[in-house]
Amino acid sequence: MLKEFKDFVAKGNVMDMAVGIIIGAAFTAIVTSLVADLINPIIGLVIGGIDFSNMYAVLSGDVAAGASLETARETGASIFAYGSFIMAIINFLIIAFVVFMLVRYVNRVKDAATEQEEVVEQAAGPSELDLLTEIRDSLAK
Questions:
Q1: Among 24, 88, 116, 123, which residue's Cβ finds the most Cβ atoms within 10 Å?
Q2: Please, what is the average pLDDT of the chain?
Q3: Cα distances (angstroms) measured from residue 115 to each of 108, 109, 112, 119, 124
Q4: Could you tell me where the DSSP H helices lie in the chain?
Q5: Is the pTM of this model over 0.90?
Q6: CA dist., res. 89 & res. 4, Å (int)
Q7: What is the pLDDT of residues 27-52, one digit of tens each?
Q8: What would the DSSP string read from start to end of 96-115?
């Protein structure tokens, strides 16, 4: 059973997946910081300083007027935090766009590498089969 487990872990797909998860976690931290620290303040400036994350409606309970979302949650009131949902949608769209741009860039690099391989293969000259065919044809004459 231990040998089977070692074989499973040693397979390339499992190792690739593990590396992908680790890099994905690090990438998530970078994108989260990009959204929270750079993009959200710019969005706030564009829309007049409105902070969506503190927008909510009180469904039941007593919450002081103008209280922050965190304060409203601490009071134990039932709240409808639509601002947090709007921010989650904005964050998702930004993260999806960043991932799209990353995948697009990686695909371009892969395509360029494939084109270079094709050019090298074409520049290498005739293949072995082409040479043998040419020799056969010249001997037949």
A1: 88
A2: 82
A3: 10, 10, 5, 6, 14
A4: 2-10, 12-33, 40-46, 69-74, 82-123, 128-140
A5: no
A6: 43
A7: 888 878 887 788 878 877 887 777 77
A8: HHHHHHHHHHHHHHHHHHHH
